[in-house]
Amino acid sequence: MLEFERIKDHEQVVFCNDPKSGLKAIIAIHDTTLGPALGGCRMRPYATVDEAVEDVLRLSKGMTYKCAAADMDHGGGKSVIIGDPLKDKSPDLFRSFGQFVESLNGRFYTGTDMGTTPEDFVHSLKETKNIVGIPEAYGGHGDSSVPTAQGVIYGLKATAKKVWGTEVFQDMSFAIQGLGKVGFKVAKKLLEDGANLFVTDINKSVIKELVNQAEHLPGKVEVVKGDDIYSAPADVFVPCALGGVINDETIEKLKVKAVVGSANNQLLEDRLGDILKERGILYAPDYIVNAGGLIQVADELHHPNKERVLQQTRAIYDTLVQIYDHADRENWSTVHASNVFCDERIENRKQRNSFFSASIPPKWQIR
Ligand SMILES: NC(=O)C1=CN([C@@H]2O[C@H](COP(=O)(O)OP(=O)(O)OC[C@H]3O[C@@H](n4cnc5c(N)ncnc54)[C@H](O)[C@@H]3O)[C@@H](O)[C@H]2O)C=CC1
Ligand SMILES: O=C(O)C(=O)Cc1ccccc1
Asked: Which residues participate in NAD(+) binding (predicted)?
């Protein structure tokens, strides 16, 4: 009873157990109103099963909103594998995972997330076609951080236009947390456009690489230590590393006028969206800004086409403008405006599906 209460927002939660390969995974399908569920597969050495359940429930719900905001015909899902990505991976583990995905009969598509790589899922592909974000050599689009970074740039443009009335990044300043696959590309584009950056990363080598590349670009880079990124005197904070970085402690330190980044679940809790609003900081909802990767992986299901991915990623700009204007009109936080926008989109589709239900054949097929 307790477990059903916990998954009351979700359609289905599947526990996958295969002692032979050592697979312990959980697949959560949150809502398939818009279409089959889509969401990556995270691998982490969760301390407890409870922690893994919490993560997969929260992430799969986030995917429902991300898909709705990006106007994808997909619902929200996510999966987690309990294990250490550095020690516990094997081809068998991912084949076994593929079999569980296949057992869902097209209700769930998955692929790379934190702790897993596209190459891991080449093994799963032997058992199921319902894998997306696959390497180019296997007919997929390859690295999803390219459109994700493009989406962040569109998010920054829409936000700069709203706050400063310009989309020109020259002489603007940005505090970038995390120079990984997405953050590095965003940083490089901003430097090319003549922006001034404050950057931090726990990995010294990526910082060195950016500083080297910056020598030949118009913009400037200042490296800051760890938590100093929150109080950097920049125009925009660009979180591209961990989730939960906007919390009661860090929010007090921010000197920026806007927050726009790729990290998932940037706000520790939604109520922090109201505090950002009160403090005059414009927040670009993360699941709108970072949808470029989702757009690219979903595109693989319709024969990969990079031009189409770019076109759909561009729409992130228009969606944000719409959310900002709606939030202004209603005096809402952008988080609330964005959630309302997605809930309405899902509700509308429910009505449309039931309107056309006459064409859906009865499921009880007696022969
Ligand atoms: N790659 C993609 O297509 C998408 C990524 N995202 C999200 O964007 C964020 C970045 O993703 P990627 O660049 O792909 O990951 P990544 O793993 O390549 O990069 C993350 C970077 O953050 C750094 N980092 C970790 N902890 C840090 C800390 N405490 N302070 C400063 N830097 C720290 C890491 O050293 C690494 O360089 C993640 O939250 C991810 O979930 C969201 C949607 C799509
Ligand atoms: O954007 C995300 O957070 C995703 O999980 C996207 C995704 C969806 C399906 C496979 C891989 C990544």
From this structure: 178-183
